[in-house]
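User: Good morning. I'm curious how zinc ion would be positioned relative to this chain. Could you predict the structure with it bound?
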Amino acid sequence: MSINGRVLLLNQTYEPLGTVGVARAMIMTFKNTVAVEEWDGDRVLRTPREEYPVPSVIRRRTYVNVRRRREASGSKRVRIYMRDGFRCQYCGERKNPVELTLDHILPRSRGGGGAAINVVTACRACNQRKGSRTPEEARMPLLTTQTALRAELDQVLLCHYAEARPEWKKYLFAAGEESAPRAGRKRTA
Ligand SMILES: [Zn+2]
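Assistant: Good morning! Here's the predicted structure, ligand included:
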């Protein structure tokens, strides 16, 4: 049986909270803390005795404070890699996550914070070359934009997953949310 994949978790108010793994989503369904809004097609999870349909979108039966949403999503590191399209934002090379690092645009030693707007994906070589300088000092202009840096990481992650999940779109791009940030820049090589 396969328990791969992600399930979109909505707040009681239909606001997207993030994603959870299939196993956790099914436990929440069994415990009745969530209602299933969409099923994952005909996909079922088989145990020796039973077959369970797999949810694709679930909604909490009780409201949860949005501040807890971070728990439902991946790590900040991965979300920043996703925002930046797994590309070094200095040389533009697309790399495997293990070859990537996070670079503080304004270095920590110079008072730069850890907020997503000050952190970009960088390959090891570029990160080392930049050292504790600003992009201007290092003459390493950033390939990203302020708009991309300001994108909300949770939204970025959801957009990334939603590319393969058309049934999620109506929840992620609800009316009146047209200004929702787009997932990383699409650069088709
Ligand atoms: Zn690089």
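The pocket of zinc ion is lined by residues 88, 90-91, 93, 122-123, 125-126 (CB under 6 Å). The mean pLDDT is 82.
Let me know if you'd like a different ligand tried.
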